[in-house]
Amino acid sequence: MTVSNLPDALLLVAFGGPEGPVDVEPFLQNVTAGRDVPADRLAEVAQRYLSRGGKSPGNDRMRALLAAVQTELRSRDLVVPVVWGNRNWHPFIEETVEELERQGHQRVMAWFSSPYRSYSTCRQYLEQISAATEGCSVSVERLRPYFDHPGCIEPAADRLREALLTLPADLRDETCLLFSAHSLPLASADTCAYVDEINEAARLIAERVSPQGQHRWEVVWQSRSGSPHVPWLVPDVGDRIDELAGLGVQAVAVSPVGFPVGNFEVEWDLDVEAAQRAAAHGMSFARADTIDQDPRFAAMIVDLLVEHCTSGATPAALGNLGVAPAACPSHCCPPPP
C-alpha cells in the first residue's frame, strides 16, 4: 500500500489556554460563553490560574507536539505543513484557517487533542471549524478518534507504571488505580460514546499495568463546572479518594486518561486538589504524566494521517468498541439540552 492524496496541511486542534495573567479573564469568558457558570466559580478558577503565573501549560505542550509531529513527518519523507489552532485562545481556529487560506492551502486534515466523542470534545470543535471555513477556500476533514490506538494506550500504560514506582515499595501492589477524565453533565453523557470510550481506554491501560489483576482500578471524574443544580458524572476524584481512605486504601495512582495533552486542569485538579485530599488521609499519591511528550504519540498522529490517506489501510485499534468513524454521524454528540 502507498500513501496517496496527502492533504495540503495538517491542523492540530486543541482547547487553548492563557499565556499570561492578562489573558486569564478573557480566556475564561470564552470557555464559559453561553453556559450558566456562577460568577464566584469563575473568580475561583481565575485565581487558580493567577496563583500559577496566569499561564496554562497546554500551549507549550502543543508547541512541542507540533514540532514532534513535524519531525516524524520528515523522518517518513512526507511533506505536509503542520499548523495549530485552539477553540478558546490564540491561535484561534479561525485565525489558523485564515492563515491557511492566505498560504493557498485548500485541503486540510484536522487532528483533535481529545480522542473521545462528546459534544464538548468533538462536535463543538467541528462546529467551530465549519463556521471558520464557511465562505472560504479551505476545506477541513478530521482524522478519526483514537482513544484505543496503541500510540495512545501504550504510552499511558508506561506513564502509569512509572508513577507506581514513585510510591513506597510495600504499597505498590495494593495501590488503587484511578483513571480521571473531565466530567460532563449527565444529559450530555447520555447522548454520546464518551463514557464508554473512557472506560475502554482505562481498561486497556489497567490490563497492561496490572496483567494479573492485582490492582483495583476505577474511573473517576474531575473539573466539573456549570450550575451546581445540574447533575454531572460522578464520582469526583477527590470525593472518591476520601471514600477509598475510609475503606482502608493506603495508596492511589492517578492516570489522566481523559487528557492526553497536559493542561492546567491536570496540574491543578490532580497535582494540587486530589493530592491534598490524599495527604489529608495520610495516603500515598502519585499522578502519571500525560502522554503528549512520548514519541509514540506524535508517531500515532502521523499514523492516523497515513491511515486516512492510504487505500485499504487497516486501522490500528486495541479495544472492543470498534473503530470510530472520522466523519461523525448527524445524530452523534448533540448539543446539551
Describe this structure in words.
The protein has 337 residues and is an alpha/beta fold. The chain is built from eleven helices and eight strands. The strands form two sheets. Strands 2-1-3-4 form a four-stranded parallel sheet, with helices on both faces. The longest helix has 18 residues. The radius of gyration is 20 Å and the shape is globular. The relative contact order is 0.18.
Explain briefly what this protein structure is.
This protein is 43% helix and 13% strand. It is built from eleven helices and eight strands. A four-stranded parallel β-sheet has the order 2-1-3-4, sandwiched between helices. It has a four-stranded parallel β-sheet with strand order 6-5-7-8, with helices on both faces.
Features of the shown structure:
337 residues, alpha/beta, Rossmann fold, 2 domains, 11 helices, 8 strands, 43% helix
Structural class assignment = alpha/beta
Extended strand count: 8
CATH fold-level topology of the largest domain:
Rossmann fold
The topology string of helices and strands comes to: EHHHEHEHEHEHHEHEHEH
Overall structural domain count? 2
Q: Whole-Å distance between the termini? A: 45 Å
Gyration radius, rounded: 20 Å
Portion of residues in helices? 40-55%
Shape: globular
Second-tier CATH architecture of the largest domain: 3-Layer(aba) Sandwich
Name of the top-level CATH class of the largest domain:
Alpha Beta
